[in-house]
Amino acid sequence: MSSTDNKEWIAIFDQVLFPLVLRLLKPEVYHSDPLGMSETRVQAAILVCKIFLRYLDQLPNQNGMLELWLKILDVLDRMINSGQGDSLEEAIPESLKNILLVMADGGYLVPPSQDTTKELVWNETKKRLDRFLPDLFKEIFPEKPNEPSTPNSAVTSPSPSTQEHTNDQQSREDGTAPGTPEDAKNTNEQQGDDP
């Protein structure tokens, strides 16, 4: 795709979508049709998100993407805080969740620990989202402790092979062969001895 095409699609936001959304946020426009305006605002927010996702892979560089992305977050912040209904408070987080997942999957939004070149996008996205949807970023990208964690299943219940190894080791200590009736008898006696 040529540089001219990139500028054209960025112009879709700067010259069409952002001015449309800002106009829809004006109180006098809202009061002209309060019932229909809520749905119109929802549709405008969804449209902004869908078009961004459609052209995300065609952004010329990371800085161009970041600048546009931050403008989108600012516009969505204004929309969700316009105080004009629950429909925006439902639609915008869902659309943003979708964008964040696509950006993460495409390598545009990754933790700085994985790619330091994406640190600015990560930090700015987190900072902007924390302003108007404080739990969304944490929900999608839960903070992981710095130390390596073990899966819960490994901690709560030993695997069958681990259990067999433990029984074999115990049998050797008792002087019995693993898996023999004597082994089962010793295990039952030990369980009966416990209070």
From TrEMBL:
<feature type="region of interest" description="Disordered">
    <location>
        <begin position="141"/>
        <end position="195"/>
    </location>
</feature>
<feature type="domain" description="GBF1-like tetratricopeptide repeats">
    <location>
        <begin position="2"/>
        <end position="140"/>
    </location>
</feature>
<feature type="compositionally biased region" description="Polar residues">
    <location>
        <begin position="147"/>
        <end position="164"/>
    </location>
</feature>
<dbReference type="Pfam" id="PF23325">
    <property type="entry name" value="TPR_28"/>
</dbReference>
<feature type="compositionally biased region" description="Basic and acidic residues">
    <location>
        <begin position="165"/>
        <end position="175"/>
    </location>
</feature>
<protein>
    <recommendedName>
        <fullName>GBF1-like tetratricopeptide repeats domain-containing protein</fullName>
    </recommendedName>
</protein>
<dbReference type="InterPro" id="IPR056604">
    <property type="entry name" value="GBF1-like_TPR"/>
</dbReference>
